[in-house]
C-alpha cells in the first residue's frame, strides 16, 4: 500500500512536470532509485514531521528509536499563539528487544498514556525505518486505538528510507487527506474563507500576513499547518479558495481538495514586495469569482497601495548601503526564486542561487525572472562554495545552518534564511526585517577583524620566522 501511495504522489496530475509528459512517459512515473546520502538534507519521515508538527494542539508520537526523534524534533522554529503540546517530544524509543518481539503493543501503550495524560484532540503517529522494516502495522494499531480511546489517531506512513524530505511532505499530505480533512464541520462559513497550504509559521511569519488578510476581509479558515489546530485543519474542506506555498510540495493536497470539494487553488509566495502584492490580488480575485463581494478587490488594492508605499519608504535608506553588494543565495524550494525578487527589490545584486531542493517549476520561474544567463546550481559542492567566497566573488552568503561553516571559514558574512532562523521575513514587514538583518550582518565589525592578519603573521616576529 505504501508503494502504491508513493507511485500515486509521484504521478501527481497537478504537477507541471507531469502535465508536460507524453502518455508513454507518464506510465513510467517519476520514481528513481535513491543515491547514497540522498536523505542527508532530510528523509521522508523528517519531511512528514515538518508538515504536521506545527499542528500545535495535537500530540506527535514517533514510533522508532529515540534518535529519530532527537535528530528531527522542533528544528524548524514553528511558533504557536496558543497550545504548546507540539513542542513535547513523544517517542516509543524502540530497543533491540522491540525489534525482535515487535513494537505494536508498546505503540498502543504509548498512545494510551498520551491520551490519558494530555487529552489532545488527536495523536499523529509517525512510522520510521526500523519498525517499517520489522513489519509493525501502525495503521492497524491506530485504528484500534481510535476505537478504544475515542480520539482520532492518525498513522503517518513515511519511513525515512522511502525517499527524500519532499516525498515525506507529500505523504504527510496524503495522511491529512485520508484521515483528517473533511472530518469536522466549521461552526459557520463565509464567502471569503481561505485555506493556506505549506505555510509553517516559521519565526511567526504567518502573523505578519494574517493582519493584512483580516483588514481586507479575508478569513483564514485553515492553515496547513502553521499555528494550526487539529479541528481547523479538519475543516479545511469548507474553504472557498486554497493557496499553496512552498514549491508545490503539497500540490497533491490542493489538487485533491479541488477534485473532492471543488475548491480552486493557486501557488503564491509571501516573500518580497511584488510577490506579496500578487498573492493578495490573486486571493481577492478568486474569492470574488466564487461569490464574494466585489468590494474585496478594492479593499485589497487599498491595502496593497498603502503597504507598498510604506515598505519602499522604509527600504530607501538601505539602497545606498547595499549598492554593489553581491549575494550568494544557497537555499532551495520557494526561497530559490522568491528571495531573488525580494533581495533585488532592496538594491542587492544576486550572484546566483542553488536549486538542489527546488522543483522544475522553481527553476523555470527563476529562468523567466532572470534569463538563461543567471547562475542556477543544482549541485554546488562545499569546496566550490568556499573557493567562490574566498575569491571575493560574494559579499554575503545566505543559506541554512548546515552550510554556515563554509562561509565562516572563508571569513565572509553569513545570514540564516532557512527553517532555524529567528526572524520573520514574510510579508511587507518581513522584507524590511530581512534588509535590517543583512545590513547588520554586512556592517558587523567582526568581519574586518577576522580578515586582518594574526599577530604572528605580521610584524617583526613574522619576519624573523621567515628568515629562520
UniProtKB/TrEMBL annotation:
PROSITE patterns linked: NITROGENASE_1_1, NITROGENASE_1_2
This protein's pathway: Cofactor biosynthesis; Fe-Mo cofactor biosynthesis
Species name: Azospirillum lipoferum (strain 4B)
SUPFAM superfamilies in the cross-refs: Helical backbone' metal receptor
Keywords noted in UniProt: Nitrogen fixation, Oxidoreductase
KW Oxidoreductase (keyword) present: yes
GO biological process: protein-containing complex assembly
Main function: This protein may play a role in the biosynthesis of the prosthetic group of nitrogenase (FeMo cofactor).
Gene3D superfamilies linked: Nitrogenase MoFe cofactor biosynthesis protein NifE, C-terminal (3.40.50.12380), Nitrogenase molybdenum iron protein domain (3.40.50.1980)
Superkingdom as given in the UniProt entry: Bacteria
NCBIfam families: nifE
Family: Belongs to the NifD/NifK/NifE/NifN family.
Domain Nitrogenase/oxidoreductase component: 43-442
CDD domains (alphabetical): Nitrogenase_NifE_I (cd01968)
Protein name in UniProt: Nitrogenase iron-molybdenum cofactor biosynthesis protein NifE
Amino acid at each position: 500500500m505504501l508503494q502504491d501511495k508513493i507511485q500515486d504522489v509521484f504521478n501527481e496530475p497537478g504537477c507541471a512536470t507531469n502535465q508536460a509528459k507524453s502518455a508513454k512517459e507518464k506510465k513510467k512515473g517519476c520514481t528513481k532509485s535513491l543515491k547514497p546520502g540522498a536523505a542527508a538534507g532530510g528523509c521522508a519521515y523528517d519531511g512528514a514531521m515538518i508538515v504536521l508538527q506545527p499542528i500545535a494542539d495535537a500530540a506527535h508520537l514517533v514510533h522508532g528509536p529515540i534518535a529519530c526523534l532527537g535528530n528531527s524534533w522542533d528544528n524548524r522554529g514553528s511558533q504557536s499563539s496558543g497550545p504548546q503540546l507540539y513542542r513535547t517530544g513523544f517517542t516509543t524509543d524502540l530497543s533491540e528487544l522491540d525489534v525482535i518481539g515487535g513494537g505494536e503493543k508498546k505503540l498502543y501503550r504509548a498512545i494510551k498514556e498520551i491520551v490519558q495524560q494530555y487529552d489532545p484532540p488527536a495523536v499523529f503517529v509517525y512510522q520510521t525505518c526500523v519498525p517499517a522494516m520489522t513489519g509493525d502495522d501502525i495503521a492497524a494499531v491506530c485504528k484500534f486505538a481510535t476505537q478504544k480511546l475515542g480520539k482520532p489517531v492518525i498513522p503517518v506512513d513515511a519511513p525515512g528510507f522511502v525517499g527524500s524530505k519532499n516525498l515525506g511532505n507529500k505523504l504527510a499530505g496524503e495522511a491529512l487527506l485520508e484521515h483528517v480533512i473533511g472530518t469536522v464541520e466549521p461552526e459557520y462559513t463565509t464567502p471569503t474563507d481561505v485555506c493556506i497550504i505549506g505555510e509553517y509559521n516559521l519565526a511567526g511569519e504567518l502573523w505578519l500576513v494574517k493582519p493584512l488578510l483580516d483588514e481586507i476581509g479575508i478569513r483564514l479558515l485553515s492553515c496547513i499547518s502553521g499555528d494550526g489546530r487539529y479541528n481547523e485543519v479538519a475543516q479545511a474542506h469548507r474553504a472557498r479558495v486554497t493557496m499553496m506555498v512552498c514549491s508545490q510540495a503539497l500540490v497533491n493536497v490542493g489538487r485533491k481538495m479541488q477534485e473532492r470539494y471543488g475548491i480552486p487553488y493557486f501557488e503564491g509566495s509571501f516573500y518580497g514586495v511584488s510577490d506579496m502584492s500578487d498573492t493578495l490580488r490573486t486571493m481577492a480575485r478568486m474569492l470574488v469569482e466564487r461569490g464574494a463581494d466585489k468590494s474585496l478587490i478594492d479593499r485589497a488594492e487599498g491595502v496593497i497601495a498603502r503597504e507598498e508605499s510604506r515598505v519602499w519608504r522604509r527600504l530607501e535608506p538601505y539602497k545606498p548601503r547595499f549598492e554593489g553588494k553581491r549575494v550568494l543565495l544557497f537555499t532551495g524550494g520557494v526561497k530559490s526564486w522568491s528571495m531573488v525578487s525580494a533581495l533585488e527589490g532592496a538594491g542587492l545584486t544576486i550572484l546566483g542561487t542553488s536549486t538542489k531542493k527546488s522543483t522544475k517549476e522553481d527553476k523555470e520561474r527563476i529562468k523567466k525572472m532572470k534569463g538563461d544567463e543567471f547562475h542556477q546550481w543544482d549541485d554546488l559542492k562545499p569546496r566550490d562554495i568556499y573557493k567562490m567566497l574566498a575569491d571575493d566573488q560574494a559579499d554575503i552568503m545566505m543559506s541554512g545552518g548546515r552550510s554556515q561553516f563554509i562561509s565562516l571559514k572563508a571569513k565572509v558574512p553569513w545570514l540564516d534564511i532557512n527553517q532555524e532562523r529567528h526572524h520573520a521575513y514574510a510579508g511587507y514587514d518581513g522584507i524590511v526585517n530581512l534588509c535590517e538583518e543583512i545590513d547588520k550582518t554586512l556592517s558587523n565589525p567582526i568581519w574586518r577583524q577576522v580578515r586582518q592578519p594574526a599577530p604572528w603573521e605580521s610584524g617583526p616576529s613574522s619576519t624573523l620566522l621567515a628568515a629562520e
